[in-house]
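hi! just following up on the protien thing from before. the input was this:
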Amino acid sequence: MKTMLITSILITFFYLSYCQVSEVWHKTYNGQGDYSDVYTCTASDNSGNIYVGGYTMSIGENANFLVAKYNASGDLLWHKTWNGTGNGPDRANKIKFVNNRIYATGYVNSSVVGHDFFTISLTQDGDSIWANTYNDNTYNQYDIANDLIITSNGHVVVTGQSDSDPTNLNNDDYLTISYDQNGLQLWVKRFNGASNGIDRATALCADNLNNVYITGRSDNGNDDDYVTIKYSSTGSLLWTMIFDNGGNDRAEDIDIDASSNVYIVGRSNNGNNNDITTVKYSSGGVQQFAVNYDYIEDDRGDLINVADNGTFTVAGRSDYAVGASLNYNISIIRYASNGTITWESNYDNPIQTDDYVTDLVLLSDGGTLVCGYSAQSASTPNIFNLFARKVTSTGNLGWTYTYQGNPNYNDQIFGCTETADGRIHLCGTIENADARGNAVLINLEQNGSLQSSLILDGRGDNSDNIRKMISDNLGNLYVAAYQVMKNNDRDISLLKINSIGDTLWTRKISGTLNGSDDDATGLVLDNQNNVYISGFVKNSGSSSDIVLNKYNSNGMLQWQALYNSPFSESDRCYDMTIDAEGNIILTGKVDINNSPTILNDEIITIKYNSSGTQLWASTYTGTTGLDRGKFVRTTPDNKIDVIGWVASGTHDDLVVIQYDASGNELWHNTILDIDNGNFNPKDAFVDLNGKLYITGIIENTINPSLQKGFAVCYLNDGTQNWIKYFGTDSGYKDFERLLPLLNTDDAILVGTTSSDTINFNPYVARISRSDGTIIWESTLIGLNNNKHITDDAAISSDEKIYVISHYDSDISAIEHLKSAISIMDINNGNSLSSTMVSYSDSFTVFNRVLIDNTTLIAGGSLWSNEGQRDLVIGKWDIPAGIRNTAVQSDIDIYPNPTSESLFCQLSSDCIGKTLRIININGQTVGEYIINSQMMKFSITDLYNGLYFIELLQSDHTISKSFIKQ
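and the predicted 3d structure came back as:
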């Protein structure tokens, strides 16, 4: 073949021409998003200032740990947020104001795995004095601080739970940490119960000698018990007391009197249902009494407040409905120091639905304040209205404050406090009509009337983005994406969209761990239009698991397959394909080191049959380091090629592994960059001869902004046929796609180029598949030379190249990106037209494109100036020039449908031409040279479904469809 090198710099980027695309429609698809801002706890100082803690949602960071301050007039003075290294859910659970300092504790999400204790000390102006994160390095799982106390010597003690099981099973232990006033860690104590089951510390208190008392629940092997522990100020264990009433006994709260007697409240099973049970111990750990409150049915103690003289008040919930139905009301009980009831008060909201108490405060006038929330209706038990209720010192009703915001939206109160002026302050969250949860501080006068209601409305996160797209033979579009959902962070989304852009159905896939990033990585259709979507999800107590779901064309789940490696560490798939028999093959990585802080990833390849049965899973072991399987392809002889990289010291080498259909490794091959760069494959395809073509980049390990492109070809036996490098070590080449040309032995490389690592432009080259030689190359230059990046590309049936890119449309503006659809001549690389696309005041970026007959479909996301991101899909008619469809006399096929053989009747001028059989995924499953006017093909090896016969003529393609049944 004669090869000619044509180099052209195409400066006329935006101009109209006869072959411009014409938009048919575009639609945006907005997920639920999460706008939750919540105050979970509150404290006050002697000047009437209010301090609140909780969390606020932030774009790309999930929930951030939040502390805010309001003055006595209700003005927000400041608010501060903290984001854990894992960009996951962070939350403040308890806040205190002591000795002119603010202390808050809770947890932040770790970049390794799980949550870590997070404790901070702030000045009254919100300046950080110290901040400590604690991760138990032995287990590296979920550590959550639940309570906080400041002892009289200024030590800060926090307690909570720490998971000691590296699998997806929870095995929490008590975890207690003491810091000095400067944040220096003094001691750490764990408590693991007798059965090595779930043990969770819920609350703590301290006496005047700085001894610390911890309480919570502990599994004894049969059920739960109250377990209360006393530590000295130096962390020495002084005693451990267990309260076991024979059934499930769970302690919730603890307090102390002036004589260092401690009181614990919770729930205890009496054999029929639960009672509110309060246990009193002396400072030496001797049980003084255990008193039960049994109203009608189930009763649960949640909170306790003890006066110096030993009188104590308990708040909880009691089921007032006799029988199987539930109707929880609030119970408030005042006891004398000997455990006898002085008075009791109950609250049932006007519509008699469930009521829940969240905080309890003894007021300066001797009264008692409780707050919480009530179900809006019996039919919506998980949608709430908030309330606060004051009871006088004699047990009479003082007042009740209730708030119902927008119907069918949540309003909840989690904390309350009293300031020196006698005013009451409630903190929690309310939802507006758009279901945005705003943190709220409600200020009440002494008589319970509303003084003010103050809202903190954070940015929230409503980020959605497309990962994969595929179309069926009916013109429907399937989209794999992620969408942020309330309380779930990112979930995998699968959308089916018809030819006019209407959503037919949507399916969500979420891990069991709320607040985790789940993402889609693969999408294929089989010949019955069943759709398979793959990705990874995060489940409670473990890292990511590989997930594969199969749905029929109506969106009904056929099955789900989850893969969690024996080490229960991070397992992720990055690509998926379907073979000629309908089997699904995934590739990705598994971490084989069971320590979350030490990563040792291996390449994993898994094969499932169409019923979801795992046929095999094979790992490829490089040296220690982070190995990845990026792409998986099948060959015409049913072999499997896996492309990725293996870590080799300080750099990553390209690796190709071939397996047979049973998962046995046939060969592997690695390439080391001579300059010790990192190979990162971006695309690959296999031709009809089983040759494998790969493209991607090689990143400079010293200066990551420098990188060069590469393309390599392997024969089916693993022999490297050729390799080519593009660019220099001082420049930049980033290849995204490698597209085969069906009618020639060439391919199209598409990516981004730069000579100075500042000005980036789309780059397209036509190369010979026989040796990698460049036939022509073109650079597209936009209105502004900087920031013009290629995202994807496709080739139409009339062999025009469609390049999707995004560019900075105004270099004076901040982050204002638009997309462009550019059409190029496949013969010489000349630009035929470019069309600008923008649907947003900030970003419009398409990252996926496909061509379906005479239309182009692009999918991606658009951003607003507020930073939110929605899915966007556009459909365009592409210009005339599609190959002509032949008349009926050119080709005829029968029988149709057929099960074993297919006959093709052809005209005489077809002899010597090429005929192909193509499945609905666009894969060629058979190619033949026509040697007579009657051709017979055996199709017994084909999977049942729809196929196309293509006859390649010099100036057009004839296409016929048939069904294998």
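Residues 281 and 287 are 4 Å apart (CA to CA).
The longest strand covers residues 380-391.
cheers
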